[in-house]
Design goal:
It is built from eleven helices and twelve strands. It is of the alpha/beta class and about 300 residues long.
Length: about 300
């Protein structure tokens, strides 16, 4: 089985909390990502939005474009409007060979609202999942036909956060709706990562290796603290530094024949958690786990672009 190692830029610069790494340049992020042992990155706010500008930058750093977040609004938006909205990012991702579009449902999200307590997040009524699933499937089919499949990111503070909500979404969507499975967000939401992987292995097409600090997550009051408060308190960290057993996670992915990107992602305060040092910790943990369970880690090939 083959694996690719990538990292998200959020450890260097947090788009939702500009005070976290706002002064850090894109060049620093990409240089340190490569030095830490990664061959791919996901996009962030400081990345150019056209293939003509971003392609040469990535090639200069010998990095692939793995994926990147898309703020989806299919839940509330007209489907044709949503297709128009995604077109520029789809074109960028297709032209630069990104594996997937990381779709997060941001209709009514509180993930980026500092004063919104976590337990005030949007909830979808059970009877509304059928229509949402129908629209999301059509949108996913459009993206796949364009050349970039979506990967649905269950995420704290959004309408699809818990294992139960993900179950309902999967039950009402077609095969075009794949999953971006994130260990940190699923554990934070009280779900069982190994169970979710076993349930939906055939629909997982992207993986975020995010760890949590259980004490931080368990001690903060979700009726008073926002998602961003949890981030600032240090809820998330890289594999090898928190409380999730990534050997078990990678073994379960291996048993289900998952191949593709393994992305280290951990939004932290860079003043407290040096991004380069933590990137190396995450890389080391994943390399050990992947090697243990039969994965061949692919290297960068300069002729890609």
């Amino acid at each position: 089985m083959k694996a690719k190692l990538g990292i998200a830029p959020i450890a260097w610069s947090n788009d939702d909390l500009p005070e976290l790494g706002g002064e850090t340049s894109l060049d620093t992020c990409l240089s340190e990502s490569k030095l830490a042992g990664f061959t791919g990155v996901e996009t962030g706010g400081k990345f150019p939005k056209t293939p003509e500008k971003l392609g040469p930058i990535l090639k200069n750093h010998k990095l692939y474009l793995a994926s990147g977040w898309y703020s989806g609004t299919v839940l509330d938006n007209d489907l044709e409007n949503e297709k128009d909205k995604v077109l520029q990012q789809l074109t960028l991702f297709r032209d630069l060979g990104a594996a997937v579009l990381a779709y997060g449902e941001t209709s009514g999200t509180i993930q980026n609202i500092r004063h919104a307590p976590l337990n005030t997040k949007r909830k979808i009524h059970s009877e509304d999942f059928r229509e949402y699933g129908r629209k999301l499937t059509l949108f996913a089919e459009f993206c796949a036909d364009f050349g970039v499949p979506i990967s649905f990111h269950h995420h704290m503070g959004t309408a699809i956060e818990t294992e139960d909500e993900l179950d309902k979404l999967m039950n009402h969507t077609g095969e075009a709706v794949k999953i971006l499975f994130d260990t940190g967000h699923m554990t934070f939401a009280g779900g069982n990562s190994l169970r979710v992987i076993n349930k939906y292995a055939k629909r997982i097409n992207h993986f975020h290796a995010k760890d949590i600090r259980s004490k931080v997550v368990n001690d903060l009051d979700r009726s008073k603290k926002s998602f961003l408060d949890f981030v600032l308190e240090g809820a998330f960290t890289v594999p090898g530094d928190g409380n999730i057993n990534f050997k078990e996670v990678v073994e379960t992915l291996s048993n289900n024949n998952y191949e593709g990107w393994f992305i280290v992602e951990a939004e932290q305060d860079p003043a407290k958690a040096n991004p380069f040092e933590y990137a190396k910790i995450g890389n080391k943990e994943l390399v050990e786990c992947l090697s243990m369970y039969g994965y061949e880690i692919e290297d960068y090939r300069d002729e890609y672009y």
